[in-house]
Amino acid sequence: MRRAVLVLALVACHGRPPTVAVTVVPSGAHVETTAPPAQPKPTAPMTPGSVAIGLIEGPPLFDPMPALEAAKPAFLKCFADARLITPDLHGKLTLEVHVGGAGAVGEVSAQPGGKANDPGLVGCLGDVLKGVTFPKPAGLATLTIPMVFRQ
């Protein structure tokens, strides 16, 4: 007479209802049991962060702030994208922006220093700023824009 052994496994994970696995094996057969593969720990979703724009140095009677405020969502997207590569990225970054007579941005560079002076972030912010139309300055305008990025 052959006998069979019933192996019953009940597995529950992370609040999901348990699943049941049933295996019937002949009596005397060797049965290896293994634990289910470990589930990766869920990570908290990254917050979008924030950006504050400080006092801008530039020519008198030239107000770039409305254009910069309108670009903030794109600045935050740049920050979020840069944090995918450098998760602890945050801090101060000072940009130098050259605005031409028509209000178009010609060149964007970062001043040395600042904890958020990341090449990927600076490049993305430069691309955003080149798509922004500023008020027309009297001639050429060089802006110094301090920014603080927070997680």
Description:
There is one protein chain. The chain is of the alpha+beta class and 151 residues long. The protein has a domain at 50-150: TolA/TonB C-terminal domain (2-Layer Sandwich). It is built from 3 helices and 6 strands; from the N terminus they run E-E-E-H-H-E-E-H-E. The chain has helices at 65-70, 72-85, 119-130, and strands at 4-11, 19-26, 50-53, 91-99, 105-110, 141-150. The strands form 2 sheets. Strands 3-6-4-5 form a 4-stranded antiparallel sheet, with helices on one face. The chain has a two-stranded antiparallel sheet with strand order 1-2. Strand 1 (4-11) and strand 2 (19-26) form a beta hairpin. Helix 2 runs antiparallel to helix 3. The radius of gyration is 29 Å and the shape is elongated. The model is unreliable at 4-14 (pLDDT under 50).
- Main β-sheet description: 4 strands, antiparallel
Helicity level, as a percent range? 10-25%
Radius of gyration: 29 Å
The average pLDDT is 82
Report the count of strand segments. 6
Instruction: Say what oligomer this is.
Output: single chain
Our estimate of the beta-strand percent is: 25-35%
Shape: elongated
CATH architecture of the domain at 50-150: 2-Layer Sandwich
Series of H and E elements: EEEHHEEHE
Structural class: alpha+beta
Query: What is the CATH class name of the domain at 50-150?
Result: Alpha Beta
What's the helix count? 3
Query: What strand order characterises the main sheet?
Result: 3-6-4-5
CATH topology of the domain at 50-150: TolA/TonB C-terminal domain
State the separation between the terminal residues, measured CA to CA.
Answer: 69 Å
Give unreliable regions as ranges: 4-14
